[in-house]
């Protein structure tokens, strides 16, 4: 397939575009492509992606500015197409890995939340109430208030209804949810 401008084939333009590339444009293209791929795998505010696009544009610009052979427009499209293919392959690998579950087991994907599991500073620890008895202060249908060890707590009845004044015992605690049953 000949290109109309100067009789060179696509492969010859490709060879000219990347064969005569200098060190600085090569570093800029490779680093820019890597940063774009990092943005794909670790999305955030776009810092890596924008920086990568700028570096790729600088690398292509410097390469075309220093070019002495071939058609600059075709070399531009060849270089953009090459970077797009590399980024596209990385995107396909990421999507395929996510579907298979391999990517979710790597450090690239964060599996936890920013808040630690269990009891945090803001959550009062009620686990010491398990097994203690008290008195229902309000009708528990199924939630209400009960006094346990002289303190008033918001509790949930295991059954659907416990009358006010009945004796209760704490059977489980999940975070701030205190579950009780009638004695």
What attributes characterize this protein structure?
single chain, 183 residues, alpha+beta, 5-stranded mixed beta barrel
Mind telling me the C-alpha Rg? Answer: 33 Å
Strand content: 15-25%
Widest beta sheet: strand line-up: 1-2-3-5-4
Question: What is the share of helical residues?
Answer: 40-55%
Instruction: List low-pLDDT spans.
Output: none
Distance between the termini: 89 Å
Q: Structural class, judged by helices and strands?
A: alpha+beta
How much is the average pLDDT?
81
How can the largest sheet be summarized? 5 strands, mixed, barrel
Oligomeric state of the chains in view: single chain
How many E-type strands? 5
User: Helical element count?
Assistant: 4
Task: Briefly say what this structure is.
The chain is an alpha+beta fold. It has helices at residues 10-19, 23-41, 47-65, 72-100; strands at residues 133-136, 143-148, 151-157, 167-174, 177-182.
SSE topology:
Blueprint (H helix, E strand, L loop, with lengths): L9 H10 L3 H19 L5 H19 L6 H29 L32 E4 L6 E6 L2 E7 L9 E8 L2 E6 L1
Parallel strand pairs: 3-5
Antiparallel strand pairs: 1-2, 1-4, 2-3, 4-5
Helix pairs in contact: 1-4, 2-3, 2-4, 3-4
